[in-house]
Amino acid sequence: MSRLSDFLFETATLKRTPRTGYQFLGRGHENVAEHSFGVTAIAYVLGRKRGGVNLERLLLLALFHDLAEARTGDLNYVNKRYVTAHENEAFEDAVRDLPFSDELNSVKDEWRSGQSPEAKLAADADQLDMILELRRLSEHGWKQADEWLGYATKRLKTPEGQALCQEILAAGPDDWWFERRDNLWVNPPAPDEK
């Protein structure tokens, strides 16, 4: 019998697995699947900005970087001082006997080594996803987010990640939908006028 449905049910668990750093920040909430989606979207942008990288590999790194957390839960920086999660074993058990287990184990190993251009961009995407959320919280008055932003920005390694971070910090989280603050806000056109 195929393990594909087991794998998909397990990955769906990430939609119910909370990211735990927010308990220390005191605001915000997110599950691991939401985070993985954000990391993957950012990785795509970084890969397109850099060019010359294996975009498929980059997206796989971003998408599956936290797969083990379906079994271990998300351990934040404080948790990791006291608890050891066997993430390699959890990841390998999650993909065991899948027709693509070798590929995903290779993705896990590349993520852990952090040496390839794709792994470096994926790691920056991981940080930038948190930076986006911290920027949003900061803009909405949560000052502790500013301190966390200082630490998160220092973890960026690639020029593309650092440049995108500066763009994120300069922008307002609501700018994208407030770009036309004209009469349309007061008198939106009728559907047949568009």
Q: What does this 3D model show about the protein?
A:
With 194 residues, the chain is mainly alpha-helical. It has one domain (4-182): Hypothetical protein af1432 (Orthogonal Bundle). 63% of the residues lie in helices and 0% in strands. It has 12 helices and no strands. The longest helix has 23 residues, at 117-139. The protein is globular. The termini are far apart. 28% of the residues are buried. The model has no long low-confidence stretch (mean pLDDT 93).
List the defining traits of the structure above.
194 residues; single chain; Hypothetical protein af1432; mainly alpha; globular
The CATH topology name reads Hypothetical protein af1432
Number of helices: 12
CATH architecture field = Orthogonal Bundle
Taking all residues together, what is the mean pLDDT?
93
Task: Kindly report the name of the CATH homologous superfamily.
Answer: Hypothetical protein af1432
Shape assignment: globular
Q: DSSP strand (E) fraction?
A: under 5%
Sketch the topology as an H/E string, one letter per element. HHHHHHHHHHHH
Q: What is the count of distinct domains?
A: 1
The main sheet comes to: none
Structural class: mainly alpha
How many extended strands? 0
Poorly predicted parts:
none
The percentage helix is 55-70%
Distance from N terminus to C terminus (CA atoms, Å) equals: 53 Å
CATH C-level label: Mainly Alpha
**Rounded Rg:** 19 Å
